[in-house]
Design goal:
Layout (H helix, E strand, L loop, with lengths): L14 E2 L2 E2 L11 H8 L4 E5 L5 E2 L14 E5 L3 E10 L7 H4 L2 E8 L4 E6 L13 E7 L2 E6 L3
Antiparallel strand pairs: 1-2, 3-4, 3-5, 6-7, 6-9, 7-8, 9-10
């Protein structure tokens, strides 16, 4: 670690070049396992021991049955595309440098629906509802790309 950060990992609550980042959330003690796993190229979800359902975004309780018996679990990284939109303008850093980009909602095979970005898709031209995607990681954050068979 250099300065408390892993090499090549942008701090999620830090600034880049003196400018705040709006693409990565603040990490707290509860979400630290999720972000540490993502920095290592692993996607996690939470699963409830009481009702068996997985959920995302990470919460300390089950949003379905309200049980507090939830644990972290590795996700497969596979998903299907639910919907998307090609964003042509976003002035917040670092989005302006990425435009156009594909903001999307995907259904993880484990069940949860997740907001994300789809990359490697030629500005959305190849996308279709229900297409298979796989997780990739950019600067320690999960994004998705068309699945290679």
């Amino acid at each position: 670690m250099v300065g408390g950060q892993r090499p090549g990992v942008v701090p999620v609550s830090g600034a880049t070049g003196g400018r705040p980042r709006f693409d990565l959330p603040e990490v707290d003690a509860f979400t630290r396992p999720y972000w540490d796993a993502a920095a290592e190229g692993r996607l996690l979800v939470r699963r409830c021991a009481a009702c068996g359902r997985a959920h995302h975004y990470p919460r300390e309780f089950c949003p379905f049955c309200w049980s507090e018996k939830v644990t972290w679990e590795p996700a497969s990284g596979r998903a299907t595309l639910y919907t998307w939109s090609v964003v042509h303008r976003n002035d917040l850093p670092p989005f302006a440098e990425r435009t156009p980009y594909v903001a999307a909602v995907v259904d993880l095979v484990e069940g949860p629906r997740m907001m994300t970005e789809v990359v490697e898709c030629e500005q959305g031209g190849r996308l279709r509802v229900g297409m298979e995607l796989e997780v990739a990681f950019r600067e320690g954050a999960p994004v998705f790309r068309p699945r290679s068979r």
